[in-house]
Design goal:
Layout lengths: L1 H8 L4 H18 L3 H12 L2 H24 L4 H21 L5 H20 L10 H18 L4 H8 L5 H24 L6 H24 L5 H18 L6
Helix pairs in contact: 1-10, 2-3, 2-10, 3-4, 4-9, 4-10, 5-7, 5-9, 6-8, 6-11, 7-8, 8-9
Family: Belongs to the 4-toluene sulfonate uptake permease (TSUP) (TC 2.A.102) family.
Subcellular location: Cell membrane
Keywords: Cell membrane, Membrane, Transmembrane, Transmembrane helix, Transport
């Protein structure tokens, strides 16, 4: 174990990883999402994609422990369950695609989808009805596919909720519950491969400490009466992820 710990402490960019996951924790606690959007682009500079996804989902356990108790009672558990059920089917496909699809192509597709959706949401479009079962299954399936492929588990469902008539409190609770479910699905799938080694698990444990603490700080900052500030913060996080994820920075 001491040798393994020394390897973890020698991880390239460890300080940057700790700082980034700390900022991501504050954002996740406040908005209910944002961890992957902030952490994945930075972690990808230092770590291979499958390791980034594994660490992202394992550290999610820390924020889930901090945020789930409050979110559970406020979330629409039936709707979130439908989204998660669809994601279960497509996560394995996303993880498999990592090995066969060129990463640059994937990044351009994700950037395009995120840009179009962000423009639509900021423009003020709102879905006034309630999605039927096929629509919910489609959103959940796409979330699982992109989550398994990139580690960005939240963007699709986040875009869906931000474009809805739901209140900030409801959006936050539903998103927290869905992302927690998706983390479990991805971890189970990774467990059948060779990605979840002791080094990955220990690095995730190290990063989970600041992540848990800053998630609580972010949760304390959340105030449902500041819905406008909530949406502005959410848009800012998505835009930041979009810009930082563009392949032009290679």
């Amino acid at each position: 174990m001491p040798d393994l710990l020394r390897e973890v402490l020698a991880t390239p960019g460890l300080i940057w990883l700790i700082l980034t996951i700390s900022v991501a924790g504050v954002v996740r606690g406040f908005t209910g999402f944002g961890t992957a959007l902030i952490f994945v682009p930075v972690a990808g500079i230092f770590l291979p994609p499958t390791m980034v996804i594994a660490i992202m989902t394992l550290t999610g356990v820390a924020s889930n422990a901090a945020l789930l108790p409050r979110a559970w009672g406020k979330a629409d558990r039936r709707e979130v369950g439908t989204l998660a059920l669809a994601a279960v089917v497509t996560v394995p496909l996303g993880l498999w695609l990592i090995s066969v699809v060129d990463r640059e192509v994937i990044r351009w597709i994700v950037s395009f989808v995120a840009a179009v959706t962000l423009v639509v949401v900021i423009a003020g479009w709102r879905y006034t009805g309630r999605l039927a079962l096929p629509g919910l299954l489609g959103i959940g399936a796409l979330s699982g596919l992109i989550g398994g492929l990139t580690g960005l588990t939240g963007p699709v469902v986040i875009m869906f909720y931000l474009a809805s008539q739901s209140t900030a409190q409801s959006v936050r609770a539903n998103t927290i519950l869905f992302l927690a479910s998706l983390d479990v699905v991805i971890v189970i799938n990774l467990a059948f491969g060779d990605t979840l080694g002791w080094e990955v698990a220990l690095l995730a444990a190290v990063l989970s400490v600041p992540y848990f603490i800053t998630s609580l700080i972010g949760q304390a900052l959340f105030d449902p009466s500041h819905e406008r500030a909530y949406r502005v913060a959410a848009y800012g996080v998505i835009a930041l992820a979009l810009v930082s994820g563009l392949p032009i920075w290679n």
